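Write out this protein's structure.
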Amino acid sequence: MTTSIPESIPGLPDATGDVTVAVGLSGGVDSSMAAWLLKQHGYHVIGLTMQIWDGSLPLPDEGRSGCYGPGEARDIAAAQGLAERLGIPHRVVPLAAEYAAEVLDYFRAEYVAGRTPNPCVRCNRAMKFGLLLDRARAMGIAFDRFATGHYARVEHDTRTDRWLLRKAIDGAKDQTYFLSRLSQPQLAQVLFPLGGLTKTQVKALAREIGWHDLADKDESQNFIESKDYGVLFNRDGQTPGPIIDLQGRVLGEHRGIVHYTVGQRKGLGIGGTAEPLYVIRLDACANTVVVGTQRDCFAPGLMAADLNWIAPEPPAGAVLRVAARIRQQHHEAACQLTMEAQGMATLAFEEPQLSVTPGQTVVFYDGDLVLGSGVIEKAVE
């Protein structure tokens, strides 16, 4: 069958020699087409799927796919069916205990501390590009490279001998925000077959080869199938406390700080104010939710810690002009980044930014190049 597959896809060279690639296979169109493209380019392909659901939490099965939940068995069965369709081996890799320790415990601890974590960023670094590969090799599964259906590009810079991460060709689907915590050894072994294609091209290609069911399948969006994260917590962080304004006046009572995040407007249970109120910050020590108007949600800068540099790390005192993304759906903001001591960085925005949220990932860009990332410690007021 003649398809519209480009003869050359940036970041996906033809296989030279006997190269085996393990593909993180989820059962969706992106990972499936990544595996198909690798086969077309001469690679031997193996499908790997993480098994992380252990039934220990009372999450409802809502019949849709999520990263974590009781619907996992359906997703694994779908991945196995797609591996058969592709004509490749498929292995399920059990990682439920590791996921609980690396992602769920981290998620809980951050929320209880009044911070808003990003579990997908954490999962990519610790699980999908880390423990999944380690466990697969320990199970005797041999492979040379690892690939996923993420929309991003990786290339090697011979001048610095570093692996670089670049945005996908499709800016609307670019997923470098979620990959910005990957290390040099992780980037060195990864392939992103879809990074040089648009989502429209990927779906069109799936239809051309007869995979209409995949092209029309809804995408998994949520960390868990249910959007109610409260079920992940016991009593920690669920003790009611005061909601106060910036002057310290008590306006109401919250139902536990784990149910709130910076920038939240709905669900505060406060009425009769001249302007809508938003969460400005969470004080875990005082078990207090602080609210203000939307004007109060803007911050001129932030402090970031736990930096991960993909480009060469700047020395302490260095000043860089970068574009920063403070959450996945955020439009990058021009700013000045100053390297501080103890692996910290200060960002000063050209224009104040809305809802700078402690615990979230901030990614530093130079054009389409990911320079590095950090974890937001606090907004600069």
